Amino acid sequence: MAHPSQLGFQDAASPVMEELLHFHDHALMIVFLISTFVLYIIVAMVTTKLTNKFILDSQEIEIIWTLLPAIILILIALPSLRILYLMDEINDPHLTIKAMGHQWYWSYEYTDYEDLGFDSYMIPTQDLAPGQFRLLETDHRMVVPVESPIRVLVSAEDVLHSWAVPSLGVKMDAVPGRLNQTAFIASRPGVFYGQCSEICGANHSFMPIVVEAVPLEHFENWSSLMLEDA
């Protein structure tokens, strides 16, 4: 999860987020190179007293500064489109979970099970156990198995919400009357935190998302206990 004074992204916990981090570094290096080159040109133009009459009217230079930006844009666009299609790809999900946004909590329904669903409320600050995070912990976590494709159907019951977990590279708007879907694969066990990312009213800051990725055997034990309690 994020920590104070952090400058970069959170550590990736899914293949898609790893791709997004690599693309970010790729694009950032291009931006740095362009910025350095432009700064050098500006400094050179300001400090030198010499002029070159061939630079003032040169078709070759005009061709270069037309083609070079086009090539750079292609180098950025192609990886971007590849990741865009990867994020939309949902092949044979092992588990489907419906996440419903409410003012101001989330409810989860495991549609592959007959009666497995629960509401997820933020734990108030005064009720936090030692080691728990303020404004991020919930009374019920969304538990998923690791290394399994998970499909999340996202909708809302009242106003616009957004289901977002940065470590997993997931962010999907929850729109009343509409069912959006996204998918992720948790590549390692852990607890991953997110929050509603669409301003949804007075308590928008108090509807966190907690995804707990566990081995398949532990997930089966958890689901059995939840079904027994239901």
From TrEMBL:
Species: Petenia splendida (bay snook)
Coiled coil: none
Superkingdom of source: Eukaryota
PANTHER family hit by this protein: CYTOCHROME C OXIDASE SUBUNIT 2, CYTOCHROME C OXIDASE, SUBUNIT II
Known catalytic reactions: 4 Fe(II)-[cytochrome c] + O2 + 8 H(+)(in) = 4 Fe(III)-[cytochrome c] + 2 H2O + 4 H(+)(out)
Transmembrane segments: 27-51, 63-85
Compartment list: Mitochondrion inner membrane
Cofactor(s) named in the record: Cu cation
GO MF entry, a single one: copper ion binding
GO BP, sorted A to Z: ATP synthesis coupled electron transport
Membership in a protein family: Belongs to the cytochrome c oxidase subunit 2 family.
Protein name: Cytochrome c oxidase subunit 2
Membrane topology, record value: Multi-pass membrane protein
Function: Component of the cytochrome c oxidase, the last enzyme in the mitochondrial electron transport chain which drives oxidative phosphorylation. The respiratory chain contains 3 multisubunit complexes succinate dehydrogenase (complex II, CII), ubiquinol-cytochrome c oxidoreductase (cytochrome b-c1 complex, complex III, CIII) and cytochrome c oxidase (complex IV, CIV), that cooperate to transfer electrons derived from NADH and succinate to molecular oxygen, creating an electrochemical gradient over the inner membrane that drives transmembrane transport and the ATP synthase.
Keyword Signal: no
Family annotation (NCBIfam families): CoxB
Co-factor binding comment: Binds a copper A center.
InterPro entries: CcO_II, CcO_II-like_C, CcO_II_C, Copper_CuA, Cupredoxin, Cyt_c_oxidase_su2, Cyt_c_oxidase_su2_TM_dom, Cyt_c_oxidase_su2_TM_sf
Cytochrome oxidase subunit II copper A binding domain location: 92-225
Cellular compartments per GO CC: mitochondrial inner membrane
GTP-binding listed as a keyword: no
Annotated ranges, domain Cytochrome oxidase subunit II transmembrane region profile: 1-91
Pfam family, one: COX2_TM
Lineage: Eukaryota, Metazoa, Chordata, Craniata, Vertebrata
